[in-house]
Amino acid sequence: MADIGFIDESSGRTLPGAGLGWLDAKRDAGRARFGALGLPTPKLESWKYTRLRPLDDTKFAPVSDAAGEAKIDKVPGLSGSAAKIVFVNGRLRTDLSKLDDLPDGVRFASLETMLAEDPAWLEANMGKVAGDAPVRAGGTGEQAMLALNEAMMDSGFILHVAKGVALKAPLEVIYIGGLTDDAVAYFPRNLIVLEENAQATLVKQHIGHSVGEYFANAVTEISLKQGANFKHYKLQAESIYATHVTTLHADIARDATYESFQLSIGGLLSRSESNITLSGEGAHAGVHGAYMMRGKEHCDNTTFIDMAVPHTTCNQVFKGVLDDESRAVFQGKIYVARDAQKADGRMLNKTLLLSNGAEIDTKPELEIYADDVQCAHGATTGQLDETALFYLRSRGIPEALARNMLVQSFLGDALEEISDEAVREAFMVHVLHWLPAHCYRAGEWTSDQLEERA
Amino acid sequence: MAATAETVEQVKSIAGEKYKYGFVTDIESDKAPKGLSEDIVRFISAKKNDPEWLLEWRLKAYRRWLEMPEPKWAKVDFPAINYQDYHYYSAPKQKGDGPKSLDEVDPQLLETYKKLGIPLHEQEMLAGVQNIAVDAVFDSVSVATTFRKQLEKVGVIFCPISEALERCPDLVRKYLGSVVPVADNKHACLNAAVFTDGSFVYIPPGVRCPMELSTYFRINEMNTGQFERTLIIADKGSYVSYLEGCTAPMRDENQLHAAVVELVALDDAEIKYSTVQNWYPGDENGKGGIYNFVTKRGACRGKNSKISWTQVETGSAITWKYPSCILQGDNSVGEFYSIAITNNAQQADTGTKMIHLGKNTRSKIISKGISAGKADQTYRGLVKISAKAEGARNYTQCDSLLIGDTCGAHTVPYIESKNKKAIIEHEATTSSISEDQLFYLRQRGISQENAVALVVNGFCRDVLQQLPMEFAVEAQKLVAISLEGSVG
What we know:
heterodimer; A: 454 residues; alpha/beta; 2 domains; eleven-stranded mixed β-sheet; ten-stranded mixed β-sheet; B: 488 residues
C-alpha cells in the first residue's frame, strides 16, 4: 500500500497549529514526500526484516477527540517524578497530567500548548535535527515514516532546559493507546532541547490497552548543546493490537552525553529507529535496550550512530529474549567519518531463543573511514545455558524457576546500563512480570504443570 | 622472525616492479567478434562442441540474463559495464587438432606459465617437494593439464570441463548448475551463457586424491572477459585439496572476470578449496584492473561432509565474491578463511554465506581485512540457521586493519536464526596498527618497517595457516607486496 487513505490536501488543516504558515508548509512538504516515498518495504536495506503488514489491510483513521476521552482509572508511573504529561490516544489529558510544579528554566509542555504559547520558538527549533532532507547516504536511508509524521503531527511534547539547569528528578511522559472502536492512528512529535551544561532525565512510557487497534508513529528530535547530559528511558508496552513506529534523531554536541535505554515488551509490531550524530569532540552516546517478545510479536531496533568528529565514543548493548513465534530484529550501525580519529565504538547484541518458532535477525554493522579508531561489535544467539541450568537444578531449584533466574540475570546485565537506580528497578519489575508468573508459587514448579497450563 | 625478514626482503626485491605478472604474451589468438548476442552464445557453443542440452541451457541463461538487474547492494562503485565491449571467446591459435600431450603445447605458452612460476613440465614439478597437478587456463580455454595419467590410475577425473562433457556427460549434466542455479545473480547468469572452460574434478568414492589439484587462470588478450566454470564433485568418503591462482597483464581498460565455482561433497567427503587471487589491480589512480565478479558456492549434500574455503584476495580493481556453503547434510561442516587486502584505489566487497539446513551442522568464519591507500573494503556475510538445523553452531570473527586515513573498512554481517538449539557467536573489530605494539617492537631494536610487517603477518596468521605450504609462503609474500608503499 503506497498510500494511507486519510492523507489528502485537507488532512493538515484541522490539526493543532493549522494556519501557522511555517507549520502548514512543513506538513505539506511532509505529505508530498511521503506521497513520493510510500510506506517503507523490505526492499529498503534498513527495513529488510520488517514489513508494516498491519497497515496493509486495515483502514486506519486519524484519532478523534472522542477517542482521547477514554476513561482511564489508573495511570502507571514512577513515584517522585518532577512532572508528568499524559496522552490518551494522542490527546493531552490535563486531568491526568501534573505540570504545576516545574523548576525555573524548564519548559515541559505538550506540542499543542507550545503552538498556542510560543510558536516562534517551535519554528526556530523544530526540524533542526531531523531535517527535511533524507538522512545522508550511509544512514538509515529515506525517511518515509518521518515524512508521514511531519504530514500528520498531532500531539507530542516539548522539553527545553535552560543553560546550566540541572534537573534532578525525572520527568515523565505517558502515552496510552487503545480503547477505541475503530482502528486509529496518531502521530506524536517530540522535541527536546538541552542548552549548555543542562541536565535532565526523561522517562517515556507507551502503554496499550488490549482493546482496539491503533498505529502510533512518533518522531523525537533531541538536541544536546555543549556539556549537556540527558538520560532518556523508554518503555514500550503497547498492546498486542498495536503497531508502534518511532524515529529518533539526536545531535550530541561537544562534551555532551546522551544515555538511552529502551525496554520493549509489547506491540504486535514495533520498530524503533535511532539516528544519532556525535557532532562535537568529547561527545558520548550510550544507546541500550532490552526486548522480550512472545506470541507473534515483532520488535525491530535499528540504530545509526554517526561519529562525525574526532574523539567521540559510543557504546551499545542490546539484549533480548524471544519466545513462541515472536521475532526480533537488531540492526546497529556505527559510522566513523573520514578524519574522525580516536573514535571508540562498541556494540553488543545478545539474544536468547526460548522456542523453535522464534527468530532473530541481527546485523551489527561498522562503516569506518578513519584509521586511528577502536571499534568492535559482537553478537550471539543461543538458548539458555544447559550447564547453568543443571547447576541450579542440582541445587534443588525447580526447573521453571531456574529458567526464570537465568533469563532475569541475562537481561539484568543489559539493565545495568541504566544509571538511574529508580528507573532500573522499575524496569526490572517489568522484566519480572514478563516471566512466567506461576513460577513464583510453590508447588507449581514442574514443567509438566507448566505445559498443562499452556 | 624468519618469515618477517623474508617478507621485508621480498618487498625490497620487487620495489619498482610492483605487479610482476603484468606482462603480455604475444600469441596469435582465435577470437569471437566483440559483443554479446544469441549468435555469440551459439558461436561459443559450437566452438566447444556442446551437446544439444547445453546449448539450450546457455540460451535460456542468456535470455534470463537480459532481464536480470545488476546487483546493486555491494559497496563498490564503478561505471556501468558495457557488455558489448568484450570478446567473449579468445583462444590461443592451435595448429591442427591441438596438442595430444604436453610436449606438443605451444612453447610460447609453456614459457608464459614458466614466467608466472607455474611450470607445466612434469619433470620440473617432480623435482619439487610436493606434486601438484595443474590445469592451465589461458583466456577462454584450457591449454594443458598435467599428471593426468597418475590421477586416472586412482580413478580421479581432472580435466577441462569441455573435455568432461565428452568423457562423462552424465556427471556434468547431473551437477552443472545444481549448486549455483542459472539465474542466481546476473554475473553467474552471464557465466552460464558464455562459459568457455574451467576445471572439472571428480573424486570417486573412498579415494583420497594423491596430489593437490590446481588451476591457474591467466587473462592475456585485450578486451576479453574470462568466464570459467569449475565443478568439483567429491563422492562418498573422498578427499581433495584444490588450489586456484590467477593473474593478468597490466592493461588500462577494465577486464571482466565472471566465474562460477560449484562444489559438491557427498557423505563423509571433504573438499578444501584455496585461492590466491592476484588479478591485476589497476594502477595507483584506479585505472585499469580486473572486475572480479565471482560466484562460488559449495553444497555439503552428504552426512559428515566438509567444505573449506580459504582465500587470499590481493588483486583486482573490484572484487565481488562470496564463497558460500550450503550445509544440507547432518553434521556437515563449512569453513571460510579469508585475507583480503586492498590498496590504492581497489575496492573489495567480499565475505561468505553459511546456510545451515541439517542437524548439528557447524561453520566457522575467520576474515581478516586490511585496507590501505584510498581503498575501500567490506566484509559482508550471512549466517542463516533454518528452523530444522537443531544443534547448529557458528563462530565468526572478522577483523579489519586500517592503514592510513584515506581508506575505509566496513563490516556488514547478517545473522538470522530460527532454531533455539543453535549457537551463533560473532565478533568483529576494526583498528589501526596498535602504537603500543609498534613501540614495543621498536624498543626491542626492530626497525619500523620490520615491526609493521611483523604485526601484519601476525594479524593474518590464522588464515595463512590454513593454506597448503607452498601457497602459504607465496601468500605471505603477496601480503607484503600488496601493502607496499602504505606501511612504515
